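The instructor's notes for this session suggest beginning with a concrete chain rather than abstract definitions. Hand out the sequence below and ask the class to guess, before any prediction is shown, which regions might be ordered.
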Amino acid sequence: MKKLEIYDTTLRDGAQSEDISFSLEDKLKITEKLDEFGIHYIEGGWPGSNPKDVAYFKKVKNLGLHGSKVVAFGSTRRKGQRVEKDTNIKTLLNAGTEAVTIFGKTWDFHVAEALKTSLEENLEMIFDSVRYLKKNVDKVFFDAEHFFDGYRNNPVYAVKCLRTAQDAGADIIVLCDTNGGTLPLDIHNAIRKIKKSVNTPLGIHAHNDSGCGVANTIIAIGAGAVHFQGTINGLGERCGNANICSVIPNLQLKLGYRCISDEEMVKLREVSRFVNEMSNIRHFKRQPFVGDSAFAHKAGIHVSAVRKRPETYEHIRPELVGNSQRVLISDLAGRSNVLRKADEFGIKIEKNSPKLKDIIDTLKELENLGFQFEGAEASFELLMKKALGLHRRFFDLAGFRVIVEKRKEREDPISEATIMVKVKGHVEHTAATGNGPVNALDNALRKALEKFYPELRDVKLLDYKVRVLTAGKGTQARVRVLVESGDKDFRWGTVGVSENIIEASWQALVDSIEYKLLKEKG
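After discussion, reveal the predicted structure:
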């Protein structure tokens, strides 16, 4: 089994993504998580570019990493500058890492237009920088920037740049598709030819501007590269980098290469979600291997099949990458979907029970009205329990009123809700304010119930979504409200539908509270 080197550049290339700004603490936490995951090389940043990266390279030494090596990134010496005097080179060495990555130009167009120097001097810059760093650092990676564009434009010179880095002692020569425009067959053919004239092990660094970042990385490995670079979740400038959350399982589970251990592979989804949390971005549900929808089944015939043999509709076992099979409930659901969800909820129901047909009919009728249970499984669990006589009410509404008042033009509106509920033989009448009518109603309901059910103090409203269902009806349109709630241990989703947004919100809020109380009290 051929072993490959994984080089993660989330902290440098990934940090160039639009809307992402890692703090120093974020970078250190991600470093620890990547180390746990088994990444071989972690590119920490460009130590000469900003104070945060300077601080990172000082603090990362105290983390006590188990297997990962931190890498400092920088450029070749400047034109006309002695290498030992060059500021970029000095900052790379001052970072104190066991490995460094240095990029150099290999596209003659860039040499002329960006560096404003001669092709010969560019070769000298590459040679001097790699040789000097190799004398002072254990491992030197040479990133051949814009290599495939350069190879297409002037193959003789592009290869000469690689051979210069080789002669200077580079440990790995990384071929970079910096603009992300090269297609897989061109990558494959180029590497096959290059290997005939370059003996140093090759790597691949692919960007995703043509949507081929993962494919280009995989085909480069197939052509002979032994090292690949990328980012968690494909983060990166413009359209991002090769997503190593897809590259690793494809190479290891499909093609038989060895990237990480099986135990580390199980952490793939966890690492993906961790980096998204640190990036403050939503998890992409449809991301291969690690997304919530990667192994989700909706059509009844699919669910029936995967209950018998998962491989009928799953390309790998989801547990291998830390994910799990999910069955979605919708108007496409059949008996298998409902039975599977009943198993998940711990609800016993016979497959020939007439109640099963009642549940399916109710489900399809409600979805026809606009209800959606894919993101509101708590509401579906309540629906099932009601149909089976397993539900019990904890309170009854006697009435509520919501007022929104705006007193001055430049002041925010004031929202107030008044509510009456019957609970445990008492009529509780209370009021509360909020930053909107739904928030006020939620606060008033909790205020009325918490002295009877103190466990509700742990429940937080985490997310609130509204979707208009009937286009063309303006303010008379039916709306669907999805509410995500949670406590310190768990999250759950509920749904409500009505022409009145407050009524739809009320339905979702009541389901949320009833779900919590049923979980706590049975």
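Then share the key points. The radius of gyration is 29 Å. Residues 395-452 form a domain with the Double Stranded RNA Binding Domain fold (CATH 3.30.160).
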